[in-house]
Structures are given as structure tokens and as C-alpha cells.
Write a structure and sequence with these properties.
Length: 414
């Protein structure tokens, strides 16, 4: 039996047992074709066999006796039977590309899996999502088989991030720091009855696989735009007679992947591939404060000396004096918070044949979020600056149909 990756032309070969059973282990997500040959039987071929991340599937292939002229039997559909008892959802590349993702992050797609509930951000917790009633800090992320839980969150106190074991989100709260949407091949989220290899955290198990190049040079460029000229004013700003704050969002970048053409002795085509991606984000996010108390106009007028200087340092009130305290008045402010992100990743794959293959990936994703009135006065600006770097090396060795070894080495910094 021969299993061939259609895009990379990489082949794996195995022999069935006496009962006709066969096994291909450590198969990365891709589109494959299966070719079966046996003396005295017609050659059988199964094209367009799609395998996803964490798939454990079985299939039955029927061989027919050969006639005088052997022919290829092509079956349009051979059903794959899932063997894993895990409850989960796989989101592939085609689905991601056809969804209008708010913020260009795939957290909203996680909600498609059963048992997932989105949770708001609070002072102690960054929010995100809860799986089967577990805490939001109980979810475990992996990227290309290594942990994505090595980060912390920005807060006045550490709370759930004290152990540095939560997913390393960007300063904007997105997964772009781990892998940009355009650099993701597919991901799965398992919510219950998953295998023992998925340990460490009791919540959802999110497995992300990044894209790699193939024999065809391909790429893309994009720019997603938002502007206050296309939007209405904030409801609370309108209600308090405040002008529309500036809203700007430009999410831009590119991807490029293909074969590495190196000297013939290494056979770059069908052997070595690269994939590079970049995503830049520049945002000015409108924000309206909750009602605050500032000195009233009468209080400022009656104060003298240093007390007057202190009271006049507060912003002018936007509402009348409060009935229970005429010396104070309501203030509601409207402004825009700047945010930025730069996520760059490079991946290389190389195969030494049917039995040994390597890959390496480096990701650099600094981000920044400057927030006014973050748990403090409107004159206070919180500078949330993040730096995320990950480097991963992986090797897969198929020693025999009964013995395989898959190794990962990773360095991550947040």
C-alpha cells in the first residue's frame, strides 16, 4: 500500500498483515491518495482522501480479482470511520477562509464545538471561553504539537496568570501571537473523552496545525479595513451629546509558500518546502467611559489657591451637579485607544524519504495596547506591551510499520 500527499508528492509505503489490516501513523493533515497493489488482484486507488488534525480513522478497501487486462479501480467516495471517542470539532482551512472573522482571530470559531460558552473579561480573568463549566484558565492550546500555554495576561494583579500556564494571547486578547489566521492550516477543539496524551488541563484541548509549503508556489496579500466614516456613533456617546471618536482598523499582511530549489543532490522539489506569513494590525478603538464624578463648576468657582488648582485639574463636567452632592457633577468621556500587532512566522519542512522528515517554525509576534481609564481615572493610560517568540523543531521517524517515533523541541518566551 502506498499513501501519497497530493500537494507535496511525499509517499509512504506499508504492507498489510495476514488479515489485510494496515496502519499509517503520524500522518499530518492534508489531502492524500491511497494505492493498493496485490498479485492476482486489480490495482485499486482511492483519490482525494482528506485527513484532519487528531484524526483516528479507519477505511475498507475492496480488491477485485484481476482479469486478463488489469485496470485501475477509482472509487469516488470511500467513507472514513472515526475511531476516536473524543467529542470535538475540526475547523479546516476552507471554512476559515469563508468566515467573516471579527478581529481576524479564530476564537469565535471555537464556539462551534459542543459544550463551549463564551465568557466576558473581568478584573481577575481575561475571559475567552469555558468548556463544560470549567474555568476559563483550564483550556490547553498546542501549536504543531507543542504547548501554547506559556503566557500571562495584563492586569493590576496576576490572578490566573500567576503560574504562566495560560495561552499566550496578544495584548489585544487574540490568538495571532501563537499563529495568524492566514498561517493556520486547521485546528480542532476536543471537549470531552479525549485520549490521555491530551493532559495538563481539564478544559478544552485546542490543537492548531500551521500551514506548510508544497510543490506549487502560492501566496496571498490582504488588507481588511474599518473606518469611523462607515460606522454610526456609539450609543452612549450619542446619549451624552459626545462627538464620534475616531475608529481606524487596518489588518494587512501576506503569505507565501512553495518548494525550496536547492542543488539536485538534495532534490529540493518533493523534499523541501517553506511557508512565510506576516500580519500587521493598526487600530484606534473608540471608547466611552462609565459615568465618573468630577468637581462641579460652582465648586471650582468657589475654591481658591492650591485647592482651586487641584479642582481645575479635573476634566470639565458633561452633566449637571449631582442632587446628593452639589459640589460634584457627572463626567463621561469619549476617546480612542491605539493598538498594534506585528506577527511574523517562517516554517520549513524537509523529507529525507519515506521514513524520516523534519520541520522547523519560528514565530515573532510583538503587540501593544494603550488603554485609557483601565481600572483608573480617564487621565490614566495603561501601556500593555507584549512580546511573544516561539521556536519549534520536530522530527518524525517511521522505523517500521510497527514502530514510529515523533519528537518535538520547543522554546517559547512571553
Amino acid at each position: 500500500m502506498i499513501l501519497t500527499d497530493v500537494a507535496k508528492n511525499l509517499r509512504r509505503q506499508t504492507t498489510t498483515s495476514g488479515e489485510g489490516n494496515f496502519l499509517f501513523a503520524q500522518v499530518p493533515p492534508s489531502s492524500y491518495s491511497v494505492r493498493v497493489e496485490q498479485s492476482g488482484f486489480r490495482l485499486a486507488e482511492v483519490p482525494d482522501l482528506v485527513l484532519h488534525v487528531n484524526d483516528q480513522s479507519s477505511m475498507r478497501i475492496e480488491l477485485r480479482l484481476a482479469a486478463r487486462e488489469e485496470s485501475v479501480v477509482v472509487r469516488d467516495e470511500v467513507p472514513l470511520v472515526g475511531e476516536s471517542p473524543a467529542v470535538g470539532t475540526v475547523v479546516n482551512r476552507q471554512f476559515i477562509e469563508n468566515q467573516p472573522l471579527n478581529g481576524r482571530s479564530f476564537q469565535t470559531l471555537v464556539e462551534l464545538s459542543p459544550g463551549v460558552t463564551l465568557t466576558p473579561a473581568t478584573l481577575p480573568a481575561a475571559g475567552q471561553f469555558s468548556v463544560n463549566g470549567q474555568r476559563t484558565s483550564s483550556n490547553y492550546f498546542t501549536v504543531d504539537g507543542v504547548s501554547g500555554n506559556f503566557g500571562s495576561t495584563a492586569s493590576v494583579t496576576l490572578y490566573e496568570s500567576a503560574g504562566g500556564s495560560i495561552p499566550s494571547y496578544s495584548a489585544l486578547g487574540t490568538t495571532s501571537s501563537l499563529a495568524s489566521v492566514d498561517a493556520v492550516q486547521e485546528f480542532s477543539i476536543q471537549t470531552s473523552t479525549y485520549a490521555p496524551e491530551f493532559g495538563r488541563q481539564p478544559g478544552g484541548q485546542v490543537s492548531i496545525v500551521t500551514r506548510s509549503g508544497n510543490n506549487n508556489l502560492h501566496g496571498s496579500a490582504f488588507d481588511y479595513l474599518r473606518n469611523s466614516a462607515l460606522d454610526a456613533n456609539n450609543f452612549f456617546a450619542n446619549a451624552n451629546g459626545l462627538a464620534k471618536s475616531a475608529e481606524r482598523q487596518n489588518d494587512f499582511g501576506f503569505t507565501l509558500g512553495g518548494p525550496v530549489l536547492i542543488p539536485k543532490v538534495y532534490r529540493g522539489r518533493d523534499r523541501t518546502f517553506f511557508f512565510v506569513s506576516y500580519e500587521g494590525l493598526r487600530v484606534r478603538q473608540p471608547f466611552v467611559t462609565s459615568p465618573l464624578q468630577v468637581p462641579s463648576l460652582n465648586a471650582r468657582k468657589n475654591a481658591t489657591g492650591a485647592i482651586g488648582d487641584i479642582l481645575n485639574a479635573f476634566p470639565l463636567p458633561t452633566g449637571p451637579p449631582l442632587s446628593n452632592d452639589p459640589t460634584t457633577a457627572a463626567y463621561i468621556g469619549s476617546f480612542s485607544n491605539p493598538q498594534s500587532l506585528n506577527a511574523t512566522s517562517l516554517r520549513a519542512d524537509h523529507s529525507f524519504g519515506e521514513k524520516l522528515s523534519f520541520f522547523g517554525r519560528y514565530n515573532h509576534a510583538p503587540s501593544e495596547d494603550r488603554q485609557r481609564a483601565r481600572f483608573c481615572a480617564a487621565s490614566c493610560v495603561a501601556d500593555l506591551t507584549y512580546g511573544v517568540d516561539t521556536a519549534t523543531l520536530g522530527a518524525t521517524w517511521l522505523a517500521s510499520p510497527r514502530l514510529s517515533n515523533d519528537a518535538r523541541f520547543n522554546f517559547s518566551r512571553s
